[in-house]
Amino acid sequence: MQLFRYSTSIYGGSDVLIGASWDLLKWFVIAGAVVIVLHAAVKAVTSRRAGRAQ
Amino acid sequence: MTVSRVNAQAHVSAADAVPDRVKRHLLVDRAYHWLMAACILTLLATAFLPIIGYKFEWLGLHWTTGVALSALVLIHIVRAVIWQDFWAMMIDRVDLRDGWRHLAQALGRNGAAPGKPGKYKALQKLYHAGIAVLVLSIVATGLLMLLKIDTPLWRRNPYVLADYQWGWIYVVHGFAAMALITMVMIHIYFALRPDEWRFTRSMLRGWITRREFEEHHDQARWAADER
Description:
- The complex is a heterodimer of chains A (about 55) and B (about 230).
- Chain A is α+β, with helices and mostly antiparallel strands.
- Chain A is built from one helix and two strands; from the N terminus they run ββα.
- In chain A, strands 1-2 form a two-stranded antiparallel sheet.
- Chain A is rod-shaped and about 75 Å long.
- The N and C termini of chain A lie far apart (about 50 Å).
- Chain B is built from eight helices and three strands.
- Chains A and B meet through β2 and α1 of A and α6 of B.
């Protein structure tokens, strides 16, 4: 998995950095989904535990 | 007049004196929030839909919306510094102490119970700080990137910076934009949660109920306007 995008210089030599790799896009979406699922799960467990304690 | 009737009138007067709604967001702040949301969603759509395969002429809408977002952010900063309670959104010592107590409580340790937040919870403040960093990065790099396109107001001049400098500007813009997707997902999730609904309602209608105010907020830390 690449972090950056490069283009080949028309003058030869080393590649030129042109931006962030769009391959990472799905990982940012997955990170958001993971936070949501984890929070929902923790909330469900803690509210059940609190309900049982009352 | 009997004593009970006098007491009843006094009770009604007291009820009238304490409004059942507490003002949380003025109309101008709600308008800012929703205009900013419209800009962010438009910018994310015009940036990423072409990347995932929906090809269209995205650049014109993207840069004009970016300029609108920059103007909105500038207005918000001026308003926050001059007219709003700037420190209400800053994480303070009490937030850190209560955050530690929440963590200790979650881990099952004994100790003092965390206090109630002021107008904003510590996590809301943290979220705001994160969004501020991302949006300011996107605005700063986006405004520089305007130098690379022709518009009705100026001609392109990409030669003000070297290739590798442009590369890093695009890197910051791209990473901040992708991180914004994560943040928007989390924001929408919390806005839709029933236990957070009072915040969403207050961003639509401006108020929370007095009961919600007393139940969830420390009145010493939030001198709320009442109506």
